[in-house]
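Quick note —
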Amino acid sequence: MRPDPAAYPSSFRLFAFGPDGVLEDNDIAQATLAKARQDYPVVWIDMDGLGNLGAIRSLGEEFDLHGLALEDVVNVHQRPKAEDYESALFIVLRMPTTGSRVGTEQMSLFVGDGFVLTFQETPGDWFEPVRNRIRDPRSRLRTNGPDFLAYTLIDAVVDAFFPILEDLGEQLEDLEQDIMEDPRHEHVPLIHKFRRDMLMVRRAVWPMRELINGLLRDDHPSIDAKTQLFLRDCYDHTVQLMDMVDTNREIIAGLIDMHLSAASNRMNEIMKVLTIIATIFMPLSFIASLYGMNFDPAKSPWNMPELEWHFGYPIVITAMLSVAGAMLIYFRRKGWLGGKPRSRAHQRVLDHENRDHADPKDQ
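Predicted structure written out below.
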């Protein structure tokens, strides 16, 4: 069993509780632990950071934990799963990190006769509401066993994904609006970032749903039948999470197509404007170049007699402006410069909407 050299230093928190009281301490010395197990029906030890391998071994010896399970605790790249051992039920979950960046960490949980052990990779978790419920003498946690505490912790991990997915959904809506209004190159890496984040959440939630379904389907000595009823609600939450993940993934896939389409449309508009400008200047360039040639009207009446006109220059400029204006009017009527008349299908939709929103008194 080899811990990661970059693992966080270990810190501990002890909760021992029952209907008559709560013991909360940061010391898991042998005497403190023995007293807690003797005086209280449920003991919860929460370990943040996996850098203290000796403490993990000591807990394994104290609660008779299987060596393979302890190796899975230290090797933090496990897939969410549940395994029954003689002394305890071992559960591995992926818990979202508490920082601003979307990420997950491994949370290992043992539930056995009178105890729950949790091991987290980093300090900080989503369990403070659970601790507050333990401190409340009216809480249901105080009158139930360790399996109910294990369910509550699993439910806290599942519910922690909801605000993350809701926040990602709002960001996707903002990104979609930006792409519709002004597609830019920096939108592409953002789309791929959201895609990676959503894939990370899916890798955590999908196997967790199967894990909870297995806890419901199979009989586990450490989980009471009453607790399985609450696990059904937890399973429903994972189903909702998967629906949110799938919806957001479809939005992300649509954003990629939307960005490509918007960028292509924008390029087409730019090319259309440039083409129209070039087209307008083609006849103007022809007229200017024609009248810029060296003709001599004295040699022949066919050699540009207009060169001797008093108002020849303004007449030619007026002709060039008239040609440009006529072309612009023609382009607008064709819809190449906007102002294209609505199609019959579009007009029918507008007429239908206007009819639906009309005042009933006018009908």
